[in-house]
Amino acid sequence: MNSFDSLKLLPEILSSLNKKGYKKPTPIQAQSIPHLLTGGDILGIAQTGTGKTAAFSLPILNNLGSNKIKTKPRHMRTLILTPTRELASQINENIEEYGKGLGIKSTVIFGGVKPRPQILQLKKGMDVIVATPGRFLDLMSNDQIQFGQLETFVLDEADRMLDMGFIRDVNKIIARLPKKRQTLLFSATMPQDIVNLSKKLLVKPKKVEVTPESTTVEKIDQKINFVHKTNKPKLLINILEDQSIEHVLVFTKTKHGANRVVKHLDQVGITSAAIHGNKSQGAREKALGGFKKGTIRVLVATDIAARGIDVSHITHVINYNLPDDPKSYVHRIGRTARAGRDGIAISFCDDTEKKLLKDIEKTIKYQIPQDKDHPFHGVAGAPAQPQNHRRPSKKASANKSRNGNNQQRSARRRPAKKKPTT
Fold it and tell me: Where are the alpha helices (DSSP H) in 221-376?
């Protein structure tokens, strides 16, 4: 398929795609869109960067625009469930861009913000709702959402839903869906739980698989840097001294680790921000917005928060910590080399992470080349602080202070000894 024109989409959609510079559909779009335009179900196995969002949103918009119906208050025609707030916002932004001129009403529903504005939006009736399971279930349980006009249901990033423990919420929502509907299920991987879910959800689906599971994008230049754990901050700063590296996504294992990395970078004047579950929605959107605009050079993220980062110009992905799940490595480095660009993925590996590296290389069937030329290769880390130099805990200090005060009070209460007479 050579162009979007051959897909027979509405003129308004084709105009929006043309303005964004999209000429030729990606493999998943070429395989999915014609089938979805006819109302069929889809089981899509697709990783980050394959054009999955447009693959399901373009036919949905086309069907909604071709068959306009007034939506009743608290009703919707399309429900898209996705695991993270960032991804929900990103999908809704794409729907608004692709659907310009169609008069399609869409909104996002997620936690971390006050529910009142979302409830007011729902009262208007929506063509498309993009939601995370938790907040959507809360509103559904309070009768703020009705399913009488639902035509299409999309379950996006299904494997991540399972990883994040959302499967119970998802099943409760599925139980309320009308039996007659179009259903789309997308997942980067296909564990048995997803296979079972697909059998329950889908009716005679077309299976679309565009990238073999756990393979990496060929355009990504991968490197592994062996480094002592205490030298990781110095190595990161050394890499970022190259001013030509403009848009960098750094992955850490924990939220606190992300905050520490930002602190190190701020101390040397490198603009950075952290994005993770402990941040407020406003702070997360501000960080992601600054990264997209280029005012923030380095975005430091955890795996879960990064699922909503859809930025085409990321040049470098740096794994400050290797992930426990080898498949997460594939998702991480897939954030670069998007929209036809090349990309670089650099991974730090200390002594405690060597087993994780072996698991990754076994999964991707590729031995990642070592970079032995970086300045901290083979350099010992800072010595550990001696035990007797540790600062006393707050509790110990408080006990010491109380004991000292008690001794002083006891001394004041005891009568002074009389001097012996001579």
Answer: 232-240, 255-267, 281-293, 303-306, 326-333, 354-364
